[in-house]
Each structure stands twice: as C-alpha cells, then as structure tokens.
Amino acid sequence: MNNSYIKRVSDEKLALLLQAKGAVLIEGTKWCGKTSSAEEMAKSILYMQDADTSKANILTAKTKPSLLLEGKTPRLLDEWQVAPELWNAVRFAVDKRRANGQFILTGSVIPTRTNDMHTGTGRIARMKMRTMSLYETGDSNGQVSLEKLFDGEENAESKSNISIEQLAFLINRGGWPAVARQTNEKIALATVNDYLEAVTNEDISKADGIEKNPDRVKWLLRSLARNISGEAKNSTILNDLIENDEALSQVTVVQYIDALKKIFVIEDLPAWSPKLRSKTAIRTTAKRHFVDPSIATAALRASPKRLLSDFETFGFLFESLCIRDLRVYAESIDGNVYHYRDKSGLEIDAIVQLADGRWGAIEIKLGAGEIEAASEKLLKLKKVVDTAKMNDPTFLMVLTGTEYAFRMENGVFVVPLGCLKN
Length: 422
Hints:
The protein is 39% helix and 15% strand. By secondary structure, the protein is α/β, with parallel strands linked by helices. The chain folds into two domains: 11-128, Rossmann fold; 144-421, no CATH class. Strands 7-12-13-11-10-9-8 form a seven-stranded mixed beta sheet, with helices on both faces. Strand 10, helix 14 and strand 11 form a beta-alpha-beta unit. The longest helix has 24 residues, at 185-208.
C-alpha cells in the first residue's frame, strides 16, 4: 500500500465490484490514476508495458496466456490491451475458478474488438475512472453532499473558500493526480501540456493504428476547446478546421474524433429525454466536453490570467469543470449526468439521474448575477416534466463559483462547486 496515495471517490465502487464479479475493468484517460487505485487493492501485479518484460509478456500472451494470470488475487493486469488475448483468458479463468475478485484490468485505450473476443458479460464488470474532482484534490470542503440531496437533505448552508482567481487556476491545473496538490502554476501547466503533446504525437495514432497528422490533431483539439460546453456538430468543427487545412474532409474529422474518444480524451455529455406534459420536441445533440477542462485550456493556451480577462470563455470552462465533478460524484451513487434542451429554447446544463429513477436538475453559473434567472429556468423545467409518468425532481440546484451555499425561498439550492462532494 502506498502511503502517499490520495483516496478516490471511485475506490468504494471498485471494492464493491470486486466482491460482486470475477474481474473488473477500469478504463479511463492516461494519467488519471487507474493503476494507482488498482495497486491499492491488488495482491499481485503484471505491468504489460514494463520495458524489461513487455516483449516476453506479449509472446506469452499469444502462446499460453494463462501463465500471466498466475499470482495472488486480485491480480492486476495493467494496460492489458497491449495483449488483447488476455481478455478471453481472464474470462475463461473466472469461469473456471468460480470466485469473485480474481482480476483487475486497467486500460487507457479501447482496443479494437475481434470476432473471437468474448463480451465478458457476467464475468467482467466495467468501471470508468476520471481525473480527480475538487473534493478529491482537497479544494472542495465537501460540506454539501449530492447523495444527501437525493435523500432529502434540506440543510445546505456552507461557505466555499475558493476565490475566483483560484478557480481559474484549478481549471488550468486539472484533476491529474500528479499535480493534484500542486500550487506552483508553472509546474501544473507543464504537466497538462506534456499530456497534450503525448496525445497529439503518439496516443491518438495508437487508438486505431492509423497514423495521424499532429498539426491536424492540434487544430482539432483547439476547435473542440473553442466549442466546449456547446453542441457544435462535426460539420461545424470541419468548417473551423478548413481555415488551416483545405484538404480536410468530414470523414477525416470523424476518424480523429473517434480516436480521441477511444483514448478517453473526449467525453461528450448526452441529452436527457424525460416524459413531458406537452409534445415539445427534445433536442438530442450531445454537448462537447473533454474528460478534464485543463485539456481545453492547454489547447487554447488559456492561462489563469487570460481566463480572468475573458469571462465568457471562463464561464464555458467552469461549466466543463462542474460537469467533470458531477460525473465523478454521480457515478459513485449509481447515477449518470445529462443535459436538457427542447425546441422552445429551455436549456438546463446538467441533469443527474440515478438508476432508481430519481433525478435532480442543475444550472451552472460562474457568478452571482445570473442565479435568480437560473432558478426560474429550473422551476420551468419542473412544470414541463410529466410527473404522472416520472418522478418529481428530488432537488433543483444552481451550481456556482460563488462563496455561499444556501436554499432560496423558491426551494432551489445554491451551491458553490467548492462545497460539493458525492
């Protein structure tokens, strides 16, 4: 056990899945802490990318993969996708041993599925891991719990200690474990820039084995960053990129975007489809997001100082920061995050819906000036949802970059991101 390990919100879910299934697959972007979390629970470890043993391990996986599965359990197979043969071997071993908690697999790339690859259903549980939330990094005091709001907790009075200047820094720093407690701006930003360089020059081409043009990747990341928290279509992204490369086609843009999704750089926010009282059409376009907002700031070269001079961009990036944290918190309580927009123009930034059907609606506002209008939008959504066919919202919240958490007279919670936890 590593004494310097920073506990993650997902640790409890991993422990639970190991008790319930024979193996657990942890997926997520590189450097988000998958291996560290798995190491905390593993009793033996196989590092597939260890330079000293990788060639021998790959050869063994092709000839007799069961040899690589021997060891105390849970056994960690780190970056298993280097040798896809391990997947079926794990599935078979789980069937043969008839015991839970046998293996943990980690991967930063979604491998191309072959015809002989078993789905793993019933044997291998899947779990997505993200970069760290503000509660995990210690920046949020965690005095307002998302789970308690779903359980009917009405006391949400608290105070955030995060200033607007600190928020700008936290967006740039991101939730990368390597700099989770870092206060030196140059060191933090250098780490994110290194990540972006790795994605641009190496990782994206490994996703599907097709060599990518690094300049095109940079232009694409910059365009996606400019459209963060929006619903830009691929055609819009293409039109943005053509200014730099007239030879680009929409097929190429889609190929590059798909590759970024395979290495967990992009994670768009899907639209929510509730039952409505009227026949109002619901828009189904996903919102553009990176797995961490620092990827956007690195692509744009948007320093904390620059964000403080451009509050429009700051607002979009703050929304993406909130979505990242909401996803971390929601998944720990068996929930998912969506956004809502209908043809009438009503738009809600985030809907958190649990597996049991309970849901809460959240508007995201950086400053205090829009809180009142945001609360009215939330109340309007409550009126259009058909509560005869689905539950009333458990709570309505304006998630902010402000100082104080409280409940408004209309029942809407105002919660600074610096007070929220799972």
